[in-house]
């Protein structure tokens, strides 16, 4: 079955899907994106992702490409046409196409919208989670508006590639005070020896992860205590557990930091429990 993408009003074969060479996303990374999980034939936390999309667009003064209802329709159509039951749906909005010039294009230039979807094997993801993943640490070198989900991800790309080259899956950015901000594509958490969950407050230093918010809700339901504060790499190495969260990996146990074991070197029970129960509390929308 061939994959289908949505590009600026048309559903086209993925292999032939193109954007203009002067799309501002291509030339300036002048755009934003969202990724939603598709789980058991449902879209996960669509409302929250589209709320964050609106916020990202607003922060950059990019117009919405279409109404929320229309966008919901396109997301579903792309998921359906690609027969995705478990996987991800990706959407990207850029400031549109215009002659290359740093200034914003003329009023009325339509934003550009691309939507893709792809299937993923949930069993493969569970295998990764059963083993846990390694992270490396790298100096924070991103701009100070990482709360906006822009497609400008070069520092994240370089950090994650470095992680891969060192046999790890994720890179944690560490700020000038030695505190972990977040991962290249995930939020970072630890569980202290006395069982408290710790994650950095969602200020301008991190992306306000939707999975992070759902895990906070789940932790409250489970009666776990949570401290929203920064933690250092040294504290993480002393922690009982560590994990990362994102729509693309849910709650993923971290078992090594810079090659050193976290806790007993195996996924912790709290991370595993949060992973198992995640979809009990996330919003599941029909496709
Ligand atoms: N932090 C960064 C830098 C990300 O890119 C992502 C997801 O792409 C996240 C955190 C997790 O966000 P969410 O839980 O909304 O997927």
TrEMBL record:
Keywords of this entry: Amino-acid biosynthesis, Branched-chain amino acid biosynthesis, Pyridoxal phosphate
Q: Per the record, what are the reactions this protein catalyses? A: L-leucine + 2-oxoglutarate = 4-methyl-2-oxopentanoate + L-glutamate; L-isoleucine + 2-oxoglutarate = (S)-3-methyl-2-oxopentanoate + L-glutamate; L-valine + 2-oxoglutarate = 3-methyl-2-oxobutanoate + L-glutamate
Q: Name one GO molecular function term.
A: branched-chain-amino-acid transaminase activity
Q: What is its EC number?
A: 2.6.1.42
Q: Which cofactor does it need?
A: pyridoxal 5'-phosphate
Show which residues constitute the signal peptide: none
Please name the InterPro entries in this protein's record: Aminotrans_IV, Aminotransferase-like, BCAT-like_C, BCAT-like_N, Class-IV_PLP-Dep_Aminotrnsfr
Q: Does the keyword Nucleus apply?
A: no
Pathway(s) where this gene product acts: Amino-acid biosynthesis; L-isoleucine biosynthesis; L-isoleucine from 2-oxobutanoate: step 4/4; Amino-acid biosynthesis; L-valine biosynthesis; L-valine from pyruvate: step 4/4; Amino-acid biosynthesis; L-leucine biosynthesis; L-leucine from 3-methyl-2-oxobutanoate: step 4/4
Role noted for this protein: Acts on leucine, isoleucine and valine.
Query: Which family does the entry's similarity section mention?
Result: Belongs to the class-IV pyridoxal-phosphate-dependent aminotransferase family.
Q: What is this protein called?
A: Probable branched-chain-amino-acid aminotransferase
């Amino acid at each position: 079955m061939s994959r289908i993408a949505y590009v600026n009003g048309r559903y086209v074969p993925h292999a032939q899907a193109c954007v203009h060479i002067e799309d501002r996303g291509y030339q300036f990374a002048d755009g934003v994106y969202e990724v939603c999980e598709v789980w058991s034939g449902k879209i996960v936390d669509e409302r929250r992702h589209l709320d964050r999309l609106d916020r990202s667009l607003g922060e950059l003064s990019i117009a919405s490409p279409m109404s929320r209802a229309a966008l919901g329709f396109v997301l579903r159509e792309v998921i359906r046409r690609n027969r995705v039951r478990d996987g991800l749906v990706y959407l990207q909005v850029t400031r549109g196409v215009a002659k290359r010039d740093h200034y914003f294009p003329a009023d009325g230039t339509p934003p550009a919208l691309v939507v893709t979807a792809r299937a993923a094997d949930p069993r493969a993801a569970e295998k990764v989670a059963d083993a846990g993943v390694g992270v490396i640490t790298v100096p924070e070198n991103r701009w100070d508006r990482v709360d906006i989900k822009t497609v400008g991800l070069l520092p994240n790309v370089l950090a994650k590639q470095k992680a891969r080259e060192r046999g790890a899956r994720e890179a944690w950015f560490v700020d000038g005070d030695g505190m972990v901000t977040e991962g290249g594509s995930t939020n970072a958490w630890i569980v202290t020896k006395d069982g408290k969950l710790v994650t950095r407050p969602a200020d301008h230093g991190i992306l306000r992860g939707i999975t992070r918010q759902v895990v906070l809700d789940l932790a409250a339901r489970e009666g776990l205590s949570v401290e929203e504060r920064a933690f250092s790499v040294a504290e993480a190495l002393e922690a009982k557990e560590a994990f990362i969260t994102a729509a693309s990996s849910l709650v993923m146990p971290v078992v090594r930091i810079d090659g050193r074991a976290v806790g007993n070197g195996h996924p912790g029970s709290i991370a595993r429990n949060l992973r198992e129960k995640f979809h009990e509390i996330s919003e599941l929308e029909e496709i």
